[in-house]
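Agenda item 2: S-adenosylmethionine complex prediction
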Amino acid sequence: MSSGDRPSVEELMIRAESMKLDSEGVRKAFEHPSAPEFADQTSRWLPNSDNVHKLLLEAIQRHMPVKGHVLDLGAGTGRLTKLILEQFPSASVIVADYSTTMRHFAAAALADYDDRVTVVDLDMFASLWPDSICGFDVVVSGFAIHHGKSTEAYRLVYRRINEVLNDGGLFINLDHVAGEDRRSSISNAQSWRDFLDLDGGIDSDKFILSSYAEDRPIPISTHRQLLRETGFEQIEVLWEDMIFALYMGIKKSTR
Ligand SMILES: C[S@@+](CC[C@H](N)C(=O)[O-])C[C@H]1O[C@@H](n2cnc3c(N)ncnc32)[C@H](O)[C@@H]1O
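Presented output:
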């Protein structure tokens, strides 16, 4: 039900369905010159962002060797890479993204860490990844995998991630997830709108519309199942709030 002139969250979600971007539309959005600025405002739209990033770094600390090799998948501006490089001075990171705009931004933002960073062009949903993408202790991702256009696309990307990890390697993802049913998805999105409204400077409804038009989130239970099917164990949800979750899995030893 609408209150006053404001559409309900459910109405926004239905409207977003009719505006759904296809893969080309999503790619174009990330080529836009304003894309890096939006991606770098995470603390405004992610609840408890400092704490969530702390949890992410703590998980990496628990599972990565000192000279760890990391893949940041859909790395955008290099925001997560920078946190990792700062926290782990001997780690090196491959910064992978399919957007030229984002890669240019990331290369400039990470210029100070030159010898520990390589920026590469990669479409994570491509059926084949280059042979040079391999041997990682950690694959990290933030707000990128939710563009999987089907359960099969998610399964494929998890299989690729598993293949490029060393045995015992960590996959960790901070992302937009769906509720377990429509009712919980709507209620989670309502909580998120309440949170966005607190900012005062964000057009919450526009934000919700564009997020649901771009993203194709799936429930945590489906992520768990897909991770199990593609060779992960110790699958854990480290944090979950509103429409977001931080979850991880460890690559099962193949020996
Ligand atoms: C919202 S930004 C998040 C960036 C960063 N991970 C962060 O947490 O700040 C999403 C990024 O995923 C990238 N992306 C989306 N789909 C992708 C794909 N199929 N392959 C590679 N990168 C992709 C976009 O270009 C964009 O840079």
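Discussion summary: The pocket of S-adenosylmethionine is lined by residues 30, 39, 42, 74-77, 79-80, 97-99, 102, 122-125, 142-144, 147 (CB under 6 Å).
Owner for follow-up: CH.
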